[in-house]
Amino acid sequence: MSEKRPAFHTILIKGKRGNLFSVLYSAGGEKPSPTVLLLHGIPGNEQNEDLAQHLRRIGFNVLTFHYSGCFGSSGDYSLKNNLQDAETVLDFILNDKEFGFDKTKIFAVGHSLGSFVCGQILAKRKEIKAGVFITPCNIGRLFEIEKESPNLYQKTVDFLEETRLWLVGVKENQFLTEVENHKKDYPLESLAPKIAKKPIFVIEGLLDEATPPKFHSKPFISALKSQNTENLRVKSFETDHFLSDKRLELLEEVGDFLKKI
Description:
Layout: E1 7-15, E2 18-26, E3 33-39, H1 49-57, E4 61-65, H2 79-95, E5 101-111, H3 113-124, E6 128-134, H4 142-148, H5 150-162, H6 174-181, H7 192-195, E7 200-205, H8 217-227, E8 232-237, H9 247-260
């Protein structure tokens, strides 16, 4: 039975490596609510809490969490572990009997590297009905970016190395090794055949210097269009990676997209 009033819950979800620190923005109401799995980027300083609050206001439960080895969650951080953690949290939603999740209406929203996680779980799990990709980091095509823009590649590699200061258990060049070992299945465009039938919303920042659309979102969008354009929505804002001066527009766009579904 869901709560009648909106509420805020901190939850320790048991994962493969221990606890995942999680927060649920509960919509309340008499009936189970549609639920958004909100996935932050790397290392996770921008958690899009304004988006979580907005989605709750319009009737969604929003569950967000920190990946293993990140901001207090147990274990070591890795791309592989990110994907496992997202499935662990999804399974928590599906098995829960306390918080009023509508288990037939679960959506994933990812920002930056969270979009990588969003794409993978959208492809693997039928329970996720739609996905929103906010200034996606297409880390799986990192070595393609190296050929297309060596400067951007080096900037990205340097940033990934800097994140080791924030994360637990990350070895030198670990992310490069992970991407090298998953060249075929980590690029977002490789997922297009599996996810094109689901509603997808890609949001770009035209001033994004961290994940410029030309190298990150555009190949993904092209792959989706080659499969099916009926379920795809794309919105480009004249803004940066964090949509710093377009936050209200972001909230409205994402909320409207999910409500229509």
